[in-house]
Amino acid sequence: MILSALLTSVGINLGLCFLFFTLYSILRKQPSNLRVYAPRLVAERKLKQKTEFNLERLLPSAGWVKRAWELSEEDLLENSGLDGVVFMRIFTFSLKIFSVAAVIGIMILLPVNFMGSQLEIDFSDLPNKSLDSFSISNVNNGSKRLWIHFCATYAFTVAVCCLLYYEYKYLSLKRIDSYYASRPQPHQFTILVRGIPVSAEHSWDESVDNFFREYHPSTYISHTIIRRTSKLQQLTDDAAKIYRTLARMKSQEHTSQRSRYYGFLGVFGNKAQQLSKLERRLEVVEDNMRTEQSLLVGKEVPAAFVYFKSRYGAAIALHIQQGINPTEWVTEQAPEPDDVYWPFFSTSYLKRWICKLGVFVASAVLTVLFFLPVLVVQSLTHLEQLETYFPFLRSILKLAFVSQVITGYLPSLILQFFLYFIPPIMKILSSIQGYISMSEIQKSACSKMLWFTMWNVFFANVLSGSALYGFDLILEPKKVPMILAQGVPAQATFFITYVVTTGWTSLSSELFQLISLICTILRRIFSAEENDDLAVPSIPYESEIPRILFFGLLGITYFFLSPLILPFILVYFCIGYLIFQNQLLNVYAPRYDSGGKYWTIVHNSTIFSLVLMHLIAIGIFALKDLPLASTLIVPLPALTLLFNEYCRKRFLPIFSCYATECLVKKDREEQNDPRMAEFFDKLVDAYRDPALKPTLNGRDENTHSSPLLRSSEI
Amino acid sequence: MILSALLTSVGINLGLCFLFFTLYSILRKQPSNLRVYAPRLVAERKLKQKTEFNLERLLPSAGWVKRAWELSEEDLLENSGLDGVVFMRIFTFSLKIFSVAAVIGIMILLPVNFMGSQLEIDFSDLPNKSLDSFSISNVNNGSKRLWIHFCATYAFTVAVCCLLYYEYKYLSLKRIDSYYASRPQPHQFTILVRGIPVSAEHSWDESVDNFFREYHPSTYISHTIIRRTSKLQQLTDDAAKIYRTLARMKSQEHTSQRSRYYGFLGVFGNKAQQLSKLERRLEVVEDNMRTEQSLLVGKEVPAAFVYFKSRYGAAIALHIQQGINPTEWVTEQAPEPDDVYWPFFSTSYLKRWICKLGVFVASAVLTVLFFLPVLVVQSLTHLEQLETYFPFLRSILKLAFVSQVITGYLPSLILQFFLYFIPPIMKILSSIQGYISMSEIQKSACSKMLWFTMWNVFFANVLSGSALYGFDLILEPKKVPMILAQGVPAQATFFITYVVTTGWTSLSSELFQLISLICTILRRIFSAEENDDLAVPSIPYESEIPRILFFGLLGITYFFLSPLILPFILVYFCIGYLIFQNQLLNVYAPRYDSGGKYWTIVHNSTIFSLVLMHLIAIGIFALKDLPLASTLIVPLPALTLLFNEYCRKRFLPIFSCYATECLVKKDREEQNDPRMAEFFDKLVDAYRDPALKPTLNGRDENTHSSPLLRSSEI
Lengths: 714, 714
Hints:
Two copies of one chain form a homodimer.
Chain A: H1 3-27, H2 34-37, H3 39-43, H4 63-70, H5 73-115, H6 146-181, E1 190-194, H7 204-215, E2 220-227, H8 230-254, H9 259-265, H10 271-295, E3 300-308, H11 311-319, E4 330-333, H12 349-369, H13 371-381, H14 383-389, H15 394-398, H16 400-408, H17 410-419, H18 422-431, H19 438-465, H20 470-475, H21 480-490, H22 492-512, H23 514-526, H24 541-558, H25 565-586, H26 598-623, H27 627-633, H28 635-650, H29 652-656, H30 660-670, H31 675-686, H32 699-705, H33 707-713
Antiparallel strand pairs in A: 1-3, 1-4, 2-3
Helix pairs in contact in A: 1-22, 4-25, 5-6, 5-24, 5-25, 6-26, 6-28, 8-10, 12-19, 13-17, 13-19, 18-19, 19-21, 19-24, 21-26, 22-24, 22-25, 24-25, 24-26, 26-27, 26-28
C-alpha cells in the first residue's frame, strides 16, 4: 500500500466520523430520540422533556464533548460502579502507554527506519512511497541501527510494566475503598452452597438447616433452597404477556384518541370476542401456575443460598472446605440478587464439570473454524488474486479509486460484519458453562471474545500470509518467533488501515447507535402504545473490552515494527475516551457490578501483547542478521512473565475476595446500626427465585411484580 | 541380548539376594549388630540383650520374613504413622496392578509376540534367541494381531484407573480417621504468619499481638515471634561439643579401665593442661552466647507462630486472607514442632520467591547435565563401541562370560553409583527453597528425585539411542510419539536387566544396611566410649519412593511392548514388600508425619506413566502400519487426564487441609476435657527456637537440653 492510499482511507474515515458526530449532536437534541441517546437520564427522570421547537435544535453543537470531558472519576464511580471506572481506565492507561510509545516510535524509530535502504525505494516520490519504507523492514540487514530498536523494546517494556503496576495498585485500592464505602448489600452476607449430600432421613432443605446450625451456630440466620422453576417461569411469562395485551385492549376502550391505531390492528376480529377469549386463556395459564407451584416442593435441587449475620461469618463458610468430601457442600460467593442466573442451578457437580469441558471445546472450535471467512477477507486485500478469480471485474478494479477503496476499506468491513455475531454466541456458550451470575457469564464471554479476536484477526492474518496455519505452530514452538517475524511486519499495512477503518468507525457507530435509532423510529411508526417499560441498556463489556484491548495489542506489537500505526491508535483512544465517557453518562446504566474484576483481563492481555512483541523481536533480529540482539531479547519475556507472576501474587487476591481486615472492620461499623435489623429482615427474601415471587391474589399485583416487567424496569 | 545372558544375570542376582538374606538372618542375631538391624527396637527398649552364646545364633533362619509378613496395617499405622502406611501401600498397589498386567501380558501378549515373524529369528535355538522376539517388535507390521495389544492397552488403563481411585479413596478416609483418632497436637492449634508489616510505632512482636487481638479476639491465645538465631545456634553447638569432650575427659579420670584407650588419644598433650584450656574456651563461648542472647530482641524477623484456642480458630486464620495486602500477614499451617526447619525464617517474601525460582532452575540444570555419565554408561552396553575405543580390551571382551557380565550387570551398577549422590543434593536444594518444615523439604526433594530419575534413567537411555536429545523434544511435541516409539522398545533389554540388577540389589542392600554395618564395626574398634545417643534413622522417602515409582513406570510403559519384564517387576515388589515391612518394624522410626501426602506423588507418577504408555502406543501403532489403532488410542490419554483432574477435585483437598466438619467435631470432643488446660499451657512453649532453649544456670542442664543431643535423641 502506498502513502496516498492510506491518506485516502484516513480522509474517508475522518469525514465519516465528523459526519456521525455532527448528526449525533443534532439528533440527540430531538425529544423523540431521547430514549435512544439518553435512556439513562430519562429513566432517572433527570431530563425535562422540552417539546417546543426552536432553531437551536437543528444546529450541531459540541456541548456533549465538554460534558463528557468534564466527567470526573468520582462521578463515574457513583454512576457506573467500579466496572465503569475500570472500563474508562483502559482508555487512560492505553493513552499513557501509547504516548510513551509514540514519543519513542515517531521521534526515534521512524526516522531510523526511513533512512534505511533495504527496500531500495526511490526517495523523490513521497505520495507513492510504500508504507513499508517507514517500517523496520527498510533498515539494512545487520545494521548497527537495529540496536536502537533493541533499546526501544527494553525501554517500552519497562515503561509499560511500571504503568501496569501502578494501575493495578490504584485499582485495587479503589476496590477496597468502594467496599468500605458500600452500604450493606445482601450478597455480602450470603453464600451459595451446592452439592448438598443426599440423605435418607432429611430433605435437602432440612439438611442445609441442620448442617449450618451445627457448624455455624453463631452466625447462621437462614437459607433459601433452590427449586427447579423453568416450567413455572415459562407459565409466568405467558401470563404476563396475556395480561399486558388484555390491559392494553381495555385501556383502548376508554381512550378514544388512539383508536385509529387500533383500527389498524382491529382487522383480526371482534374486540369483545377477543377479550373474552384472552381472559379464558389467562385463567387456564393461571390454573397451570397454581398446579405447578403446588408441585414445587418436590422440585428441590441440591443448592441453597445461606444467609449469615455478618460478612465475616459468610467468609468463613466460604473459604473453609465444609464437608469432608470436597465435592459436597461446595460453597461459592453469592452474586448480587439481580445478578443471579437461575437456569443452571439444577445441575450436579459432575454435569457442570462436563459442561465446562464441552464449552471449552466448543469455543475453541468456533475460534478456529471462524478462520475461513477471514481467509476470504484476506484474499480481497490482494487485488491480483481477485482479478484472477473474477476476470470480469478487471476493468473496474483498474480504476484507482475503486482499488484504493477495496484495499483500504472493504476487507475490514466484511470482517466486522462477521464479528458482529460472535459476542452473543460466546455469551450463550458461557451461560451453559455453569456460572451462577450474569456478571461472571459476561466476564467469561469477554475472555473468550478476546482470544477469539486475537486469533482470528491477528494470527489468522499474520499466518495466512506465510501459508502456515494454526495447529502447526502449537506443535512446533521452536519456529514461532521466525514465523511471526516473517508474518507480522508483512501485515503492517493491513492493520494500519484496520485501525483507521474498523477502529474509528466502530467508535462513531457506538456514539450514533444506528440500530437502536432505527428500532425506535420503526416502533414509533407501527406500534400503537407509548411503551412504558424503558429498557436502559448496560454496557456490553463482552464485546467492547476485547475490541479495545485488541487495538492495544496492535499498538504494542507494531510499536517497533511500524511506528506509523501509533498516531492512529492514539487518535482511536482519544475519541474512544470521549465517546464512552458520554455514553456512560447518558446511555448505559450498570445492572450489576463485578467490582472491577475486568482489570485482570486487561492486565493479562497487556502482558500477552508484550510477550508477543518480544517473540517477534527475537525473530526479527535473527532475520536482520543481528543474532546477538536476538539472544539478548530472550530474558525480556522471562522477566515480563515474572513481573506478571508477582502482580498475580500481589494484587489478584484483592480482586477475588476481601481480607479479614476489611470484613471485620465493616462488620463492626454496622454492629450498632439500628437499620441493620430491617436489613436482615429483608435479606431472607433477597434471593427468592423470580418465578416464585408473583402472588396470584390480585391481578394487578401479578402484572406489576411479574418478572418480565421487573427485569425491564431495572 | 539373548535369553541365556538374561538368565545368567537373573541367576547372579538371585544368588546375591539369597546370600544377602542368609547373611542378614545370621548377622541380625548378633547382639553387637542390634544397633544396625533393630535400632528402633533398641531405642524403644523392646529387646532383651542376650549376651550368652548359642549355636542358633550362627544358623540362618526365616523368622523375620514371617514377622514382616504378619505385620498388619493397624500396627504399621501405630508404628510408622500414615506416611509408613502410604509407603507400604505403594507396594501393595503396585502388586495389584502388575498382577493384572502380568495376567494380560504373559498369558495373551507374550504368545502373540512370539508367534510373529517380523524379526525372522530361527525358532529352534531358544537359549540364543534374542529377547526382542518376545516383544512387540516381533509382531508383523500391519498384522491384525496388533488389535490385541490395542485392547490390552485400554483394559489395563481402565484397571489401573479403578485401582487408583479406590486407593485414593481408601487413603483419604484413612487420613481423616487418623485425624479423628489423634490426640491434641500443637501444630493443629498453631499457624505460622509471615510478612508482618513494618510499623513505625510497634515492634513486630507488638504488631502480631495487636493484630490477632483485634481480628481474632475469641480464639487467639498467644504467639512466639521468630528471631534470627543462626549465630546463637552455632555457639550453642560449639559449647555442647566442648562440654561433651570435657565430660568424657573427666569421666576417664575416674574410670581407670578405659584409660588404655585414652592413652591412644593422650599423645596430643598433657591432660590437665588440656582440661583447663578447654574450660577456658567453654567460658568464652558461653560469654558470647550470653551477649548474643541479649542482642536477640533486636533480631526479630517478621514471622511468628500464633496459637489459637481451637483447631477451627486456627483454620479460620489460615484460610482467609488476613491483611488487605496479600503479601502481608501471609498465613501457613504450622508444622509439627520437631518438624520445623528454622534457618529459613528470616527471608522476605520476595527473597523466598527468588530462591524458589533459583532452585527450580538449579534442579532443572542438575537434572539435564547429569545426562553425561548416563551416556557413558549407555555406551558400555554396546560392546562393539567399547572395543573400538579400547582396542586392548578386545581379547577379554571376547570371553562370553565377561561380555555377559558387562552387558548385564556393570552398566546399571555405575549408574547406581552416580545416583547415590543425588538425593542429598536435591534435599539441599529443596531446603533453600523456603520451606518451613523438614517434611515438606523431604516431599519436595522426593518430587525432584522422581523427575530426575525418570529423565536420567528412562528418557536419557531412550533418547540417546535415537540420537535426539532432550531439548528438541520439548520444542517439537509433534514428533514425541514417534521418537518414543522408536527409542523405548529398543531399550527393553536394558531395562529388564536394570530391574534384575539394580532393582533386586537395591532391595537386598537396603536389608543388609552395609554402610551402617561397616560404620558400627569401625566405631567399635576405634572409639573409646559406648555411644549413648542412639540415632534411630527415619526412612529416606526422598530416595526410596522415586526409586520404587520408577520401577512402576518401567512396568507400565513396557507392559504391552515387552511383557517379559513383568515377572521381574512382580518379584521386585514382592521382595520389596517383605523387606520394607521388616525395616519399618525394626529399623526406621518416623520423626514427623506428613499425613500421607506422599500418595499424591504416587498418584501423579502413575498417571504420568499411563500417559507415557499411551504416547508410545500412538507411535508404535503408527510405526507398525496400523494408523487406525494409532488414532483410536488418542482419546485414552485425554480420558486418563480427565480422570486425574476428577481425582484432584475429589481427593486432593482432603490431603491439603481438614474440613469444617472434622475440625468442629474434634474441637467439641475436647471441649470439656480437663487435660486441655494443661495442653494449652504447654502449647505456648511448643515452638521455641531450639537455640533459645538452653538455660545457662547449670552446665548439666545446658548439655542435656542442647539441640545437638536433642535432635539425635528423637
